[in-house]
């Protein structure tokens, strides 16, 4: 016979009760509304467009221009 060294016991029933309680809390909690402000949030990036690092910065700018329409469509803003 195997004896447990734990001072607390967790059985299947306890896990099921706990998961049911967590699910009930999520369904009964008030829904979080999206915050909407009057002014849009501006997101920018700083890149050197002249000088030694301009070639690297240009590829970053191109990537940001490519990603912008996709993020607007995905995030909804």
Q: Can you tell me about this structure?
A:
This protein has about 80 residues and is an all-alpha fold. Helix content is about 50%, strand content about 0%. The chain has helices at about 10-30, 55-75. The radius of gyration is 26 Å and the shape is elongated.
Structural class, judged by helices and strands? Answer: mainly alpha
**CA radius of gyration:** 26 Å
Residue share in helix? 40-55%
Largest sheet: none
Q: What order do the SSEs take from the amino end to the carboxyl end, as H and E? A: HH
| Unreliable sequence segments | none
Beta-strand share of residues: under 5%
Count of runs of 4 or more consecutive helical residues: 2
* Shape assignment: elongated
Q: How much is the average pLDDT?
A: 76
Q: What is the β-strand count?
A: 0
> What is the end-to-end distance?
62 Å
Primary descriptors:
single chain; 77 residues; mainly alpha
Briefly summarize what is shown.
The chain has 77 residues and is an all-alpha fold.
Detail the topology: elements first, then pairings.
Elements: H1 12-28, H2 54-75
């Amino acid at each position: 016979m195997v004896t447990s060294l734990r001072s607390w016991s967790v059985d299947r029933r306890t896990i099921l009760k706990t998961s049911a309680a967590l699910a009930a809390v999520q369904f009964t909690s008030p829904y979080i509304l999206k915050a909407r402000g009057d002014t849009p949030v501006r997101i920018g990036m700083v890149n050197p467009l002249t000088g030694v690092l301009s070639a690297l910065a240009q590829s970053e700018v191109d990537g940001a221009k490519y990603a912008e329409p996709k993020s607007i469509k995905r995030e909804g803003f």
